[in-house]
Amino acid sequence: QVQLQQSGAELVKPGSSVKISCKASGYTFTSYDMHWIKQQPGNGLEWIGWIYPGNGNTKYNQKFNGKATVTADKSSSTAYMQLSSLTSEDSAVYFCARGGGFSGHYFDYWGQGVMVTVSS
Amino acid sequence: DTVLTQSPALAVSPGERVSISCWASEGVNSYMHWYQQKPGQQPKLLIYKASNLASGVPARFSGRGSGTDFTLTIDPVEADDPATYFCHQSWNDPHTFGAGTKLELK
Questions:
Q1: Which residues in chain B have their CB less than 8 angstroms from residue A105's CB?
Q2: What is the mean pLDDT of residues A74-91?
Q3: Residue B92 DSSP symbol
Q4: pLDDT in tens, A62-72
Q5: Residue A45 sits at the chain B interface (C-beta within 8 Å)
């Protein structure tokens, strides 16, 4: 069965960076987009961007250009997202989600989420 | 960005039918999708491309719409359905989500 297992919660200092992971299993990792989504407490969902692990192509929401960098390691079927220059506005739960269907337009499987807390 | 507007909350009795609406600020073709999220959990795909039932989702859930007006219907509502329901469009860049509709039982 398809599973996306994300890394554990992070407590990080303002101005630093953090890298979170999403390990995929149960499907061919290189054949589906992997998306990243942000959810702040009490707020809705924001799409950050995606990577196609088959060729490394990426696309970002302009709002997150310079903030988020997504990568993928085909050998371990793991996607990563690095967030840089962290501020309190980056405190949120971050989900990875597989892009479903031929075009990857919807998110058919989600990781359990990683809570990132930015605090001094 | 495409703004998706949802009503904030609804309350229904078990066994009733409920419709949750999502209005897009610009056309999204049929590329509207619906998710259910319970507290402390990740969202779960219910409906993709406006009207297609995701794998394993009960047939009590259905979706319709195209262009700018979309609806998710639950009929009948069951005790397990209280949650927040989000719509998501992927036709226009960037992907955007509605703020969510919180469904409660009376």
A1: 31, 33, 48-49, 90
A2: 97
A3: S
A4: 999 999 999 99
A5: yes
